[in-house]
Every structure is written in structure tokens, then in C-alpha cells.
Amino acid sequence: MIHKTQALVLHHIKYSDTGIIVYTYTRAFGRMSFLVQGARKKNSRMKAGLFQPLFILDLDIYYKEKRQLQKIKEARNAPPYQSIPHDYIKTSICLFLAEILYKSLREEEPNPELFEFITSHMRIFDLKKQGLANFHLYFMTHLTKYLGFFPRNNFNESNTCFDSNKGYFTPFKPHHNHYLEKPESHFFHTLLQYDSSQHQHLEIPRESRLKILHALLDFYYLHNPDMGHIQSFEILKETFR
Fold this sequence. Notes:
Blueprint (H helix, E strand, L loop, with lengths): L1 E14 L3 E8 L3 E7 L19 E7 L6 E9 L10 H17 L7 H16 L4 H16 L13 E3 L4 E3 L8 E2 L1 H12 L12 H18 L9 H7 L2
Parallel strand pairs: 3-5
Antiparallel strand pairs: 1-2, 1-4, 2-3, 4-5, 6-7, 6-8
């Protein structure tokens, strides 16, 4: 049976001589994988370039329940990004966030609110001209609402240290390395309050931004032990060096 759905591309790998396997998160079915035969041929109707990290696609699919690799009848950009494919910084951030999502989203059940959160923020990101350096911090922070481990924002004059193990702010440094000190905790507290139109105005020094990113990755690892190492993290660090 043919179904229509929007899909967010998470990752793709080569398959056989000319094909690819595409891992996506779809509006209608949740996480779903597709076999695209001939995608790396010059005259392919669905070229591999269409399936780049975090591209949003309109798909017509041949859906068969319990089949591990579904098949695509037709794929189109929905609509195409204007700046992301041509901007090195945005492309690097997309590569990083795609890997976060690929290793975090495991449910083969639809979650329209989560799908809308991701796709709407990617469209906003495509249009952004400033505040790019904070986008991935904001996105990772607020994605945790949908993953089930959003931090408790109890930062105040007493609670000035974010403890990643506990997921909230504490008065003292914990006896482990998974925490943020007061300056970075204050920035993180602010990110927790901000919406998508505000984070670009938050001026975070590069060193503090990197500490917050490390803490967020720790936070994800602690709540998702099977997540594995995020390989694109090193690329992202070089982007903002």
C-alpha cells in the first residue's frame, strides 16, 4: 500500500554497488529505514544527494508492516533549504544534530509533536543569519523535553551548580565530573528559559559554550547509555575554533 508522509533524514550508508540505506524519522510512522536502489547512479531518479542529514522530505512510500527496509516510490524536498547546503557552519551543526537524533530516536511509533519540534526548528535555523553558535545548545536542551529527561530549572542564588547526574542545580559541586560551575550554570539556566527566537541574543564565551556542550553530551549519555560516542563532535569543535 502506498502512503504519504514527511520524513527527516538522520543518516545514510552505502548499500551494494549503487544503493544506499536511509535512516529517517517520519511524521506518520516514527523511525523508519529505506532501501534506495541505484541512488548513486548518475541517472538516478532519487539521487543520494537528496538524503543529506536533516533534510526534510515529502515521501510516497510502499509501506509493508514489519518490513525492516521500506521502499520509496517518490521523494521530494519539502521545501528545499535555502542556506543550510551552502553554509559550512550550518552544515556542520546539522551533521552533529543529525547524529544526536540518529542515536537518540529509537521509537518506531509516531510522535507528531516531536516531529514538529525538529522540523520547525530546522526551518527556522535555515533562515537564521546570526546566533548560530548557540543553536545546537538550545536545540539539544529543549529536545530533552521529548526524550523524557528535561532538566529542572531550579537555579537561584543558592543553587548555582548544574549536576548532570541529578538533572538539576545544586548548592555544591558534586563528587564527580559531570557538572557545570556557576558561570556556565547561569548560561544554561538562561537557555532553559529561552525560546527559539531568543537564544541568538545570548552572548556565551567560546570556552563556556564548549563546557556547556560537554555537559549536555554527558547528560545525554547518562540518560541513554546505549547512545555511543558522537563522532561529529570533533568536527563541530573545529567549526567554532
